[in-house]
UniProtKB/TrEMBL annotation:
Keywords assigned: Oxidoreductase
Family per similarity comment: Belongs to the short-chain dehydrogenases/reductases (SDR) family.
GO molecular function annotation: oxidoreductase activity
Protein's name in the database: Short-chain dehydrogenase
Organism: Paraferrimonas haliotis
Lineage: Bacteria, Pseudomonadati, Pseudomonadota, Gammaproteobacteria, Alteromonadales
Amino acid sequence: MGEQRVLITGASSGIGEQLALDYAANGWQVIACGRNLEALGALHQQHDNIKPLSFDINSLGSIKQALADVAAKDLDLVILNAGVCEYIDTPMQFDSALFERVIQTNVIAVGYCLEAMLPCIRTGGRIALMSSSASFLSLPRAEAYGASKAAVSYLAHTLAIDIAPKQLGVSVIHPGFVKTPLTDKNDFPMPMRISVEQASAAIRTDLAKGKTEINFPGRFTWILKTMALLPTSLWRWMARKGLAGSNQ
């Protein structure tokens, strides 16, 4: 087998950055995508088998042109990691512009990436979509973020069915709280938060096994999935109590 190639979006920070570093350290050829060219350049300085690639993830034309410029083809793995997180703090003054921003980047842009990148994956390759454990259970203030990640999970599961005959694998990733610049902005308790190194290890291990659903930390995601089985009125009450407690 020749050199393996992976393309990672959102690679300039957080989980995406750590994945790029770890895959490169293990001998993969890495196409690290993001908006921050300085951060991507720093990755290349650490590993010359990391190729920086900058494009506007909300522009299909920009994505396609960037892929053409680096002759991205015969990829073994694509990880669609880029995303944003914003919360609805005053639901009675619902911020539709915020809602649109989150849906655009977390859902519509994933569609752009699929159109541009699926043809670049070799037969037998795999594409992974970054969702969130927030998709398991409706959580306070997450009207935009949670909805976007639930959409990504549904998209991944459906795509897996439809492209299986093409011998392409699809995985969906549901992380819990991971210490990143994104979660550092959160103003509420984040139980069982793990490091980006731990997150990267969990993702890479399960992708290597061909797992279709990657959930971590295991105990945290199990709790959320179990809560989702409770009567709706009960877990809504629990969510409200949790929100009230976090505001004290």
